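Support reply, case 0932

Customer input (verbatim):
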Amino acid sequence: MIDAAEWEIVALSLKVGGVAMLVTLPIAFALAWLLARVRFPGKVIVDAAIHLPLVVPPVVTGWLLLLAFGPNGPLGAWLENWFGVTVLFRWTGAAIAAGVMALPLMVRAMRLSIEAVDRRLENAARTLGAGPWRVFRTLTLPLSIPGVMAGAVLGFARSIGEFGATITFVSNVPGETQTLPLAIYSALQQPGADAMVWRLSCVSVGLSLIALIASELLTRRAGRGLHVL
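Our regenerated output:
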């Protein structure tokens, strides 16, 4: 059975993953819509930059976040001087790292969903007098919602499994930044902690499986809805 200390680790992981997903969701959707619907110079470069965390080592992403949000970094100094806030060694920093790592997966899933919406339907709505905002609100967004939700669930799953960028950016602080993967890593360094590793690993695998199954079901639902249309 999972003890109280391990439940705190699970709860922190869910909080970090949930906040990372919710904060990243509107950013990911805006970027997905931009890539799916707008032509502009340098689009390939923007697309590559968004997906860069997927291919560079997570430690590099964590180091770049440390440079940006550190005491002397542009974002870190701004938060400290204007709001008296620091994200180093805090769960909010872990959420930032998780959100950055989840962003490419969310953007990709949402972009595919937006691109799957038939442009002829949008053009027909415009010919009937609907403005761009009304077309987006009443047509594009509802048709892409299942894919957006699938991307959000996939981003959440990626967030609770984030390790490399998190430990590099905000370290491994019990009760503050020690999420499931970091707790498993710490337990692996302790003699006789095999049972804890098993319990936390099972919880991690279970949460990831639930999220992946939910994402797949939402993706299939989106495909069926577009097929009917």
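We compared this against your earlier run and they match. Two observations from our side: The radius of gyration is 20 Å. The mean pLDDT is 88. Please reopen the case if you see a mismatch on your end.
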